[in-house]
């Protein structure tokens, strides 16, 4: 690995054997509803708490992905999971249910691609035959943990984002040469970027520079032309962050064709004004990628995509202590 | 990888180029004081909050490790960090300072070996030239987050453990054949084990079965005789968990010579009765391993050791919701 490089190329082209997305009632009303494997009619999902419901989203996404891959959980060598809850309880309790060797991860909303990058590395390097990567988030558990009680009806500015209630998971396995499969071809692990922003109701603006740095590093490390991908998708900058990132591309001569650049936080709820700038949360990029994007790739919509999951690494406590918001983004390229 | 296997053998034998441990004032009074690279005289460490002090412990441990390895932070391909704070803020803010590509991890107190295992894998598979693994914990920030305000003077039962105020880090690099170095030879990634225990003041008892399962898997996967290691060390079961694990070994015929089995949570404070069952926290196994154990190995005390870091994956919220405590352990073998 060259000094300063932060990308892995997966020579064996590990295969995404299957993927699944599970969502809540609000996601069921969105434009991507048909791309979910399972949609719940209420936010409690027959559980006693939102936190337990969030765990169920991840468990069901993992179960569905395993079912679609046609393998049992005993075959999974490693489960790589993470979420937004304190001590990533959703993932750890899902890992208890799965009973697979478990690597707990935390990168806020970037965890989805941190997990897929590491799962693909393990398979590529023959350190796993099957690796399962999954993340989740729940609007109500996130609001409860990060913000004011929802009963207060606190207003939010138009830069705020709506935490997605969803779980997503993918099974990564070896490339045995079978045709018409989706391959993970590379990953770029991000550095922490902090431009000094402190407003937790404007995460898109805080995270856009991190996405920019990771995307720039990805093209530089791999020496790729900027029009390599049919789709570059960030998740989840929302409308505000998407627009800032477009500006950053332009200012720094990163000539990614802007009609090939989208954001998962915008896609998931379309132009619903009730979500302000767009969706967010570990479940956003996971559900959009493992539900919508891979389905479209299987249908032939795109040959090569780059998924850039972004995360804001703050906590309510760092905000209270006046700290700015450290951000990160991890990118994974998927090819048909 | 065989079905059901959960261990990696590192064929290239990556090298621990350097390691460092930084501690607080209470650790400075303990029997391992001389094995720290830096000891602070007060718990705030010139910061405004305990959380900021905790971050400093990790930053200093990383700095010291880099200094001892004689490499600058620009050479670090990946920093793998984690801690006990909500949203692992200590590690993420330290990653901001380090400015290296960052993989955030969470496995509670097992994070130390989760990080060393992954760092060694990256170097072994030529996916990194230099990887930095580090974790930290701080008694006061942990008490504040997990328990009652210390001002209440709440009493604890003798099964409780004392969160260690310390940070530890190690630089892993390629094996270029230089003699007299310490090598990471294998790692075993644990499954979540939950025996239904619910008492957060008796983590040792909750975690002992997880340590048992990982140790059993390690010897089974690698087909090693039980007397392979000069030292098997868990971190951090404390006296209660240590005694339970000894019983489990005996009951299940895992004939690890009991005089070669120690626990980091017991070592760090010796027989100080003020810590109840012993030390705990991400900083405990990290400081004991990266300070004490590797120093003793360099002095020739042991040729082969197995470090089994244990973690209790609960949160205050899962406890309040009546959940039991899922536990995990990750093992890493180090050879001179």
TrEMBL record, chains A, B:
An example molecular function term from Gene Ontology annotations: acyltransferase activity
InterPro entries (UniProt xref): SpoVAD (IPR010894), SpoVAD_sf (IPR038369), Thiolase-like (IPR016039)
SUPFAM superfamilies: Thiolase-like
Protein name: SpoVAD
Organism: Tumebacillus flagellatus
């Amino acid at each position: 690995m060259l000094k300063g490089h932060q990308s892995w190329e997966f020579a064996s082209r590990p295969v995404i054997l299957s993927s699944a997305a599970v969502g809540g009632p609000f996601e069921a009303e969105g434009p991507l509803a048909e791309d979910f494997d399972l949609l719940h009619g209420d936010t409690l999902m027959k559980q006693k708490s939102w936190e337990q419901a969030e765990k169920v989203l991840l468990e069901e996404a993992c179960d569905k992905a395993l079912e679609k891959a046609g393998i049992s959980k005993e075959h999974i060598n490693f489960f790589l999971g993470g979420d937004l809850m304190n001590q990533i309880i959703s993932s750890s309790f899902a890992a208890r249910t799965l009973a697979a060797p478990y690597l707990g991860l935390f990168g806020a909303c970037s965890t989805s691609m941190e997990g897929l990058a590491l799962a693909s590395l393990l398979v590529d390097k023959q350190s796993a035959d099957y690796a399962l990567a999954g993340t989740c988030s729940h609007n109500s558990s996130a609001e409860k943990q990060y913000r004011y009680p929802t009963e207060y009806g606190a207003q939010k500015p138009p830069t705020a984002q709506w935490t997605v209630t969803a779980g997503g998971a993918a099974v990564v396995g070896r490339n045995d040469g079978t045709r018409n499969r989706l391959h993970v071809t590379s990953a770029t692990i991000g550095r922490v970027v902090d431009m000094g922003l402190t407003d937790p109701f404007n995460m898109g603006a805080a995270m856009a520079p991190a996405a920019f740095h990771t995307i720039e590093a990805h093209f530089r490390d791999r020496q790729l032309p900027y029009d390599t991908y049919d789709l570059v998708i960030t998740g989840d900058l929302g409308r505000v962050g998407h627009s800032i990132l477009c500006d950053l591309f332009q200012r720094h001569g990163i000539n990614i064709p802007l009609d090939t650049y989208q954001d998962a936080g915008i896609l998931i709820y379309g132009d619903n004004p009730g979500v302000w700038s767009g969706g967010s949360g570990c479940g956003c990029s996971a559900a959009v990628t493992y539900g919508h994007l891979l389905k479209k790739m299987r249908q032939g919509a795109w040959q090569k995509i780059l998924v850039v999951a972004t995360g804001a690494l703050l906590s309510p406590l760092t905000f209270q202590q006046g700290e700015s918001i450290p951000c990160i983004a991890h990118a994974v390229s998927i090819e048909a």
